[in-house]
């Protein structure tokens, strides 16, 4: 009896040890196959462009193929839910923007919880620009502010859909101006930008990555940038911030981060974070991002803990903005 029990304990110990060694070996060998970066928005948008830039640099550091897949819909929540439910092995990752922090206040049913995701690190942040159709009379923000005060809901403000960066920026702007401009939602940035260039809508608060070419081509009027400091991009450097233009405390940047399913082994998360850090030091990536007015993250927000703290603060901030705007979760 004692011999059989001892043998059983020995067999169990060997099995547990074997599993531990096997898991450790699997983590040590990561990655053994292609890694997928899920972008919860359509191809060609700012998030897609950034993900593809990061994918190319990650490929060099991870030594494997990194594929970008677009899973769009419902303000980014469909793609996010896909990653939250994916196998926690490090082969399915999420690249998402500020909308991840606002989704809990905008949607009743998300199909996931924020706690279903592990934070890897922040990638970048970029300002938006407040732009208008060329036929608008105001030539600076002070004049525009007067027009907004006088016209109210007669002026319309385009956005790329509920939860989009342009929508969030518009909410913050309307909240701080205490105005009642009419929001005009579109299904994406491209049709909204097309209509503002065509003069069908008056204003838009859009990411600099999309608006800079139109500003350079004088297809739209630029009134302000939304970050705390002016942009270093030549085409935008002469445009004042909204703080300079008379809205103290206005600071809106669009940031992107990398996420994994929550139960992903720590050893794998560490490898992904290390690869992300190396990718964000890639001179070619930095050059491409800076040319668009984007700041590549190099501070503590690149760490999982720093990323999570920043994210939690953004959730608190935007929940208040959305609540103050009287928006009810869908």
UniProtKB/TrEMBL annotation:
Residues in the signal sequence: 1-28
Domain of life: Bacteria
Keyword annotations of the record: Signal
InterPro entries listed in its UniProt record: BUG, Bug_dom1
Family of this protein: Belongs to the UPF0065 (bug) family.
Identification of the protein by name: Tripartite tricarboxylate transporter substrate binding protein BugD
Biological source species: Cupriavidus campinensis
């Amino acid at each position: 009896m004692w011999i059989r029990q001892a043998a059983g304990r020995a067999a169990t110990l060997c099995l547990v040890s074997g599993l531990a060694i096997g898991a450790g070996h699997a983590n040590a060998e990561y990655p053994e196959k292609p890694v997928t970066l899920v972008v919860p928005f359509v191809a060609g948008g700012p998030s897609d462009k950034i993900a593809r830039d990061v994918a190319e640099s990650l490929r060099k550091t991870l030594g494997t193929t990194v594929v970008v897949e677009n899973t769009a819909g419902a303000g980014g929540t469909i793609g996010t839910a896909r990653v939250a439910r994916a196998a926690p092995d490090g082969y399915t990752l999420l690249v998402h923007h500020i909308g991840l922090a606002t989704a809990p206040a905008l949607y009743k049913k998300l199909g996931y919880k924020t706690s279903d995701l592990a934070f890897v690190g922040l990638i970048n942040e970029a300002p938006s620009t407040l732009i208008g159709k060329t036929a608008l009379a105001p030539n600076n923000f002070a004049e525009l502010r007067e027009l907004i005060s006088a016209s109210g809901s007669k002026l319309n403000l385009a956005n790329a859909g509920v939860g989009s960066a342009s929508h969030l920026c518009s909410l913050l702007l309307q909240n701080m101006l205490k105005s009642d401009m009419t929001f005009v939602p579109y299904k994406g940035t491209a049709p909204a930008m097309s209509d503002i260039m065509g003069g069908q809508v008056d204003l838009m608060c859009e990411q600099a990555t999309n608006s800079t070419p139109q500003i350079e081509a004088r297809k739209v009027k630029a009134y302000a940038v939304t970050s705390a400091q002016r942009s270093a991009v030549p085409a935008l450097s002469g445009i004042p911030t909204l703080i300079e233009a008379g809205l103290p405390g206005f600071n809106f940047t669009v940031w992107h981060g990398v996420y994994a399913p929550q139960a992903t082994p720590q050893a794998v998360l560490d490898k992904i974070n290390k690869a992300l850090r190396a990718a964000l030091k890639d001179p070619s990536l930095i050059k491409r991002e800076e040319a668009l007015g984007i700041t590549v993250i190099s501070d503590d927000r690149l760490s999982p803990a720093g990323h999570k703290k920043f994210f939690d603060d953004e959730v608190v901030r935007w929940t208040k903005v959305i609540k103050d705007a009287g928006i009810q979760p869908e």
